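Replying to the earlier thread about multi-chain prediction with a worked example.

Input:
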Amino acid sequence: MLVSLKEISKYVDISSLSPEEIASRLTFSGIEVEEIKKSADATNLVIGEVIDCKNHPDSDHLHVCKVDIGSDILDIVCGAPNVRKGLKVIVALPGAVLAGKTINKGVIRGCESNGMLCALNELGVDPKYLRKEQVEGIEELPNDAPIGNREVLSYLGLDDTILDLSLLANRSDCYALYNVAREIGALFNRKVSIPSYEEFHTYEEKDFTVSSETDACKSFYAKIVKGIEIKESPKWLKDVLQSEGIRSIDNIVDLGNYVMLLTGQPIHCYDLDKLPKKELIVKDNIVEDFTALDEKTYQIKEKDLCVTSDNKTMCLGGIMGGENSEISSTSKNIVIEVANFNFASIRKTSNRLGLSSDSSLRFSKGINKDQSEDVLNLFIHLLKDLSSFNDVSNVIKYDTFNHDKKVVDCSLTYINNRLGSKFNFDEVKEVLTLLNFEIEDIDHDNFKAVVPSYRIDIDGKADLSEEVIRYKGFDYISNELPVMETTVGSVSTLREKERNIESYFLNNGFNEVLTYTLINEKDNNMFNFINKNEGIVISNPLTEDHKFIRKNILTSLLRTIEYNINHKESDFKVFEISNVYSKGDKEEIHLSMGLVGNKHIQDGIISSSFSFYDLKGYLEGILSLFNIDNNRIKWNVIKNSNDEFHPNRSAEVILDGKVLAVLGDIHPLKRNEFSLKKEVCEILEMNLSLLFNTRSANNKFFEISKFPKVKRDYAFIVSEEYSYLSIKNEIKKASSLIKDVALFDIYKGENIKENHVSLALSITLEKIDSTLKEDEINTLDNKIKEILITKFKAELRG
Amino acid sequence: MDYALEFENLKTKCLEEINKASSLKELIDLKNKYLAKKGEISLMMNHIREVEDKKAFGEMYNACRKSVEEALDIKIKEEESRKLNEDLKKEKIDITLPGNNYQRGSVNPFFKVINEIEDIFVGMGYSVETGPEVDYDKYVFELLNIPRDHPARDMQDTLYIDSNLLLRSHTSSVQAHVMEKAKGKPIKVICPGKTYRRDDDDMTHSHQFAQVEGLVIDKNINLGNLKATLELFAKKMFSKDTKVRFRSSFFPFTEPSVEVDISCFNCKGKGCSLCKGSGWIEILGAGMVHPNVLKMSGYNPEIYSGFAFGIGIERVAMLKYGIDDIRRFYQNDLRFIKEFKKVKED
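Result:
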């Protein structure tokens, strides 16, 4: 909302207040002033008349002019197409600064030029408020412009300061200059004078009727004015509108806009003679194509508010008028509409049609319902100066609103308790009175506050506490921590587990990344191994790139890997923990991790590429953090690796029958997709929710044996059809004395049969209550050998 | 036979040889030559049978043997020490070669800030909860005093899944969830989490960002309590002389509502580029929980009151570390992430 301080000063005394002071006070009390701007920015100007204008001898578009500025006659070269003899112009004298640019004397293609003839945009006026010809040529001043006048900005009405208010949803009342004046008056305790006018009419309208057939329009006021003259607006009105960022059209449209600016009440005018019937009825059940003032056609649907006449839409209520009843230069008789349309309906229609206007903006925020007659009276009063007319009707109205004043019961105690303040009754009363509340003191603590009708945001006593503190300033509140029952602060169990994993990875040299939840369709269709539920799609995405809520996070991690490879990072470890979502309210916490390239010792003195077993090791590291017994874990080959994981270097990890994780090499066919060249890329995704919610044993002390351990080594050749784990498990089953089975060598190749492998195991035996006896050891030794030979057809070595 | 002279000569000969010896081996040989069972000194003991004054002979023998033993011991120790030093010299390494790679990883500052904020509030006795990112209109808007078609919905452009389900546009939605669970009991909680808006990504806007929601509800909670809480937070998060300033604002779910500025920790309020010369930095929105919000979630606003605040994670991180572009958090350039190694700022 643009606020012209020149216009405001008509309604509130702001003498001796600087724009900065006003802006700062408004901002701190909840009406943010985003910018303070001058309507023009130019110095050293004078009004002149072109008394001679010749073509430049050396140019096809320049003119050499003699310009009378009263005290002197200047030679000025001008390139504007509309410069001509007899034209009154704005002259920037040498030394003038126009929007930061200095004008100097100069010689243009051999002709001396002592200044510049100006267009308004060259004085800093935003071209969007100017007509095309005003931007393309120099400004043409009226014939009576006083030659030699140096107060050019003042003459042009451009000596104004504009406050650009960024209004929050609660202060829609400040879309009215009157209310901004009231606010400034209250904040600075200055006199406010909002004019009010008597109702004026010359006849009683008998035939014309207004009404509404929908609850979304509860009041519709109108007046008919006959015999008006449509013409250009006077300069003062054009100047105000320009300051307020509205383009001048004609006297009636401009007046409607001006009244809206002052009161916040949108106005619409119809050409009475174009209405098919002497009625305006608001309906919300019309379905038809409607051509609006912007010459575009819109499809009206049910629930759109239409102002109709003879069942034809004349105006898309509160948003835009129709071409069919538009005021034109030949209009003589008009109907002025002051209606109240429900904000929700206006918002819906405006959003659906992508059609908004100054009017719909105000309606959609909510407007004062109690000022309809005042607004019409103001309109008629101002019309007297803008146009002649023959007749004005009485107020024709439909109104089903309850216009009782809103009263809020409140107390000083409530306000002080809510704010942590120590105001006394008189202070509170004074503030609220300045803000135009009427206060009825009940017992010097309890009081009633009558809410001014334009403050539609005030509902209850909490609002009053805000009024007091925003007025007085927040220095009046205490600064004490809340006094509450002492509690032990803690993060949730889930969050704590998440943080444990985070620090595990960080301590192991991983970098933690953060990727977008919303991804594109292609990425959303990749690496869906853990969460196979149906995904969620955004119905109103801003871009196709952020349309799908990911249900797994591995693809996002691969995009991060891709980004860094493209930025010449070669060897790194990354991980991310993130929530994922799928249809039916399903939320899971996932972990993804990636190992890229090589691991190094001492910079790169010793290097080896990451492998599946690095992934596996980190996974086992996490499992050990949560004390998950290995017996509960199964390692399966991924049945359908989808050409995403390497079919023979990947695995699915099952915890208690559910998929906990997938991990492995990325499939060679997928490497290109992520710009991978030669570097190893090992990836994993894990369902942390499954891990976090599973049972696991807490730490507990068990007796430690006082007796020595015995180690026995076994080397043997065995067929590859037996997995290492199956051999290990079988050996472990042999006796409870076996404490550990560890692999210390594995060999394949020369001297070993095809499809066979040589393994070397170290088996640790231990007894809790005594030393192991020689014969116990030998019995067990034989048993282990027998298992190896009979169950696994192993060939024992040396 | 003059055994005294004999011992003296033997001793002198031994000591000379010991003195001359230049390796450990020679010394061991000398030890064998003189002190072993069949060594020259040991063999002298055979003569004890021939002497009368056996005691005197014994003393001479012992004295001789002791001198030689001592001399040998000293020399052997010297020699061993010399040899060890020689060996150690050969084992010399270049202590300036790189160490093995046991560096801790770095963390995207986004997570660093979340963890730090959690720790600060946990220290003040808050519990940390989470809430769903995909949530119902009811929790994100309606229970927060933002009915359908309310103008306040303009403040946030929301990403919808269907007319009822959406990606939360603020963490304030967890207020309603927390109150629903607390069933009328006092609350002191923060809830960090990701939020989403239908916004174009640029230097200062991101369609995805994160907030930490704070909510305190009890009897007698007032706006001054909010100020003190946020000031304590700001002192811990930024610097210990940070001050907090409120400006009146509007959120549908708080009344009064405030924008919270902190005194610029960079210039200490003098005015610099970080605070655009004002000495203050806008950091978060907050307010007293709106009575309607309390009522809708089962708290009697005549008895209970509360405050709520929403801290922007990226905003805090950008201020704290001087990060210029919000997109950096989501770009994950390792060069960027590796700038955040230090576990905790001083």
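Chain B has two domains: 3-90, 109-337.

Feel free to reuse this layout for your own posts.
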